[in-house]
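Example record

The entry below shows one chain as it appears in the dataset: sequence first, then structure tokens.
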Amino acid sequence: MLVSGESVPHGKPAPDVFLKAAAELGVEPARCLVIEDAVAGVEAAHAGGMRCIAVVGEHDLPGLRKADLMVKDLTEVTVERMRYLA
């Protein structure tokens, strides 16, 4: 399965792409986790009722701070940190 911004009516920050992916997987949006590196993606995840991890690298963009969890890279994502997202 491939879902992209080209396969939905509205691109990010609209939640269409994430909602379509959840529907294709048969998963409720509230049970989904989005991993993003862009402000529009964080906004789209929340608009779709999903939790979001922002991979910020060396960026300090205020919009990325709206994510449920911010990490510099994916090595910082641990089970312990994920528990706080539930």
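Notes for this example: Residues 16-25 form the longest helix (10 residues). The longest strand covers residues 51-55.
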